[in-house]
Every structure is written in structure tokens, then in C-alpha cells.
Design goal:
Elements: E1 23-34, H1 37-44, H2 53-66, E2 80-90, E3 95-106, H3 111-129, E4 137-147, E5 154-155
Antiparallel strand pairs: 1-3, 1-4, 2-3, 4-5
Helix pairs in contact: 2-3
Length: 157
């Protein structure tokens, strides 16, 4: 397989997508943050002094998806048509799972936007709770699904 972000001189380039067809595209990513049980309880009871942790993290994830091109050098600026962040509280693991779904109609996919959204969401949870739990760990961030474009559907099994 040929690397698409390398030019004839072996240097980095942004892929030219001008000849690609516009299609509906979706990217879904997920990740987890593990914490002390009492930290998780304070989050779910909305007792963190900085505010509603999940509400702030959700907005951070949406903002991150919209600005992915500013932090990932070869990403195109995209007009996103939808971004959603969902949470699953996993009490038995003392963790929170964040799931980002990003959509667009365009010439390039939104996988990086979904991954960036999950990362920023989890980092925001860490930031808002670090005063009471510096041992939180962010882990298992991965692309769950992408659809659209020439390569079609990918789903992690």
C-alpha cells in the first residue's frame, strides 16, 4: 500500500482530495478513563467543584472535532454536519466510556475528528477531576467504525 501523505521527494504533503466524490461519511471512536470509585461517584452526583464534568467534557469533545485540522497537521478543515458525544458509566470498572460520532458530507473521512473528540472529552474529565484524583488513566482509544468514500465501511471487530 502506498503512503498518501508523502510526495515524490519523500516529504510530507496534504493529500489532494479535489477529484474525490462527495459522499456521506461517518466516524465513530471510543475511549475510557478509569478513576477511583469515589471520583466516579462525585461525577455522577455532580459534586465536582468545577461544575458538571460530563456536560463540559461533551462540549470539549464537540469543539475538538471541529478543530482537528488545527492540531493534526495533514487533516483537512471539514464542514462537519454532526458531532455527538455519549457516555457510559461503568461502575464495576470505576470508569467512564466516551463515544464520539462525527458526520460530514465531503471528500475525506472524519475518523481523525472522532478520535480527537474522544481524546479531548477524556482529557477534559481528567482536567476537571485532577484535584481529587491524579491517578486517573486514559486508555483504549480506538476507531470503532468509519463509513463513506471509496474504501467504504470499516468496523472494528
Amino acid at each position: 500500500m502506498e503512503l498518501t501523505h508523502i510526495n515524490e521527494q519523500g516529504r510530507a504533503k496534504m493529500v489532494d482530495v479535489s477529484d474525490k466524490d462527495e459522499t456521506q461519511r461517518v466516524g465513530i471512536a471510543r475511549g475510557h478513563i478509569r478513576m477511583l470509585p469515589q471520583t466516579l461517584q462525585k461525577i455522577t452526583d455532580k459534586e465536582i467543584k468545577k461544575g458538571d464534568v460530563l456536560a463540559v467534557a461533551q462540549v470539549a469533545g464537540i469543539m475538538a472535532a471541529k478543530r482537528t485540522f488545527e492540531t493534526i497537521p495533514m487533516c483537512h478543515p471539514l464542514l462537519l454536519t454532526g458531532v455527538d458525544i455519549e457516555f457510559n458509566i461503568l461502575k464495576e470498572e470505576s470508569s467512564i466510556e466516551a463515544i464520539a460520532t462525527v458526520k460530514t458530507t465531503g471528500r475525506t473521512g472524519v475518523e481523525m475528528e472522532a478520535l480527537n473528540a474522544v481524546s479531548a472529552t477524556l482529557l477534559t474529565i481528567y482536567d476537571m477531576c485532577k484535584a481529587i484524583d491524579r491517578g486517573m488513566s486514559i486508555h483504549d482509544i480506538w476507531l470503532v467504525k468509519k463509513d463513506g468514500g471509496k474504501s467504504g465501511l470499516y468496523e472494528k471487530s
